[in-house]
Amino acid sequence: MIIVLAGTSDARKLALCIQQAGYDVLATVVTEHAADQLRASGLAVHLGRLTSEQLAELIRVKKAKAVVDASHPFAEEASKNAMQAAAEAGVPYIRYERQAAHVAYERVTFVDSYEEAAELAAKKQGVIMLTTGSKTLSIFAKKLLGLPNTRVIARMLPRKDNMEKCEELKFPQENIVAMQGPFTKELDKALFQHFGVTLLITKESGKVGFVDEKIAAAQELGIETIVIRRPSIQYGTVYSQFSDVVKALQQIVPLSIHS
């Protein structure tokens, strides 16, 4: 049994790839939507957030032989919990990290935190589009909502809890874009033009996170962009190709002894 942290689309594909290589796989996710997608693909699922202690116990109960952390690049807590749980349970930890996007747009400013992005945006003002998700929305709301000459557009997944958060933070309805990707460059451009966006804020979530498309759209329209760098975590063993993850598993957990 291999436990895979699998909350993203590429993580689900990796979990399937590992299963197709001959391993039993248990994928862990935190939303019912992700769980449904995994089950529809024929994967066993554990639904719900796990502390390091809970994950370590799950590893022991399932007699898992390794943990593959394919969580989102910005899911810092999940990765730290996975590393700690694997160490506690005495099993190997493997990190799958989606490839970073190559950014070559001269109007991009890189920052190291959401707070830094919000501070910089507050100085620039204008029509600001956030594509940073809902978890950190309060950081931007605190700094940007109510500023003169500033309109903040929040783009996020069309989930009830996200809409409730927007209501709680007093985001006007007309400033909410609730959409599920993938987003093409053309769609991004259309949204930027529709709202008259002058500043884009996004995360370096990798090619699979459609950062390339967002920045290409911003570049064509001459829109200034703030990109939040990935958290700096010492993962140890890291791979960015599915085949390399499978090869690593085959070396440390030969199929002849896995269960």
From TrEMBL:
State the superkingdom: Bacteria
Q: What is its EC number?
A: 1.3.1.54
- Top EC class, one word: oxidoreductase
Q: From its record, what is one biological process in GO terms? A: cobalamin biosynthetic process
- This one is known as Cobalt-precorrin-6x reductase
Tell me the route in metabolism or biology where this protein functions. Answer: Cofactor biosynthesis; adenosylcobalamin biosynthesis
User: What keywords is this UniProt entry annotated with?
Assistant: Cobalamin biosynthesis, Oxidoreductase
Q: Which PROSITE patterns match?
A: COBK_CBIJ (PS51014)
GO: which molecular function terms? Answer: precorrin-6A reductase activity
Family annotation (Gene3D superfamilies): NAD(P)-binding Rossmann-like Domain (3.40.50.720)
Organism ancestry? Bacteria, Bacillati, Bacillota, Bacilli, Bacillales
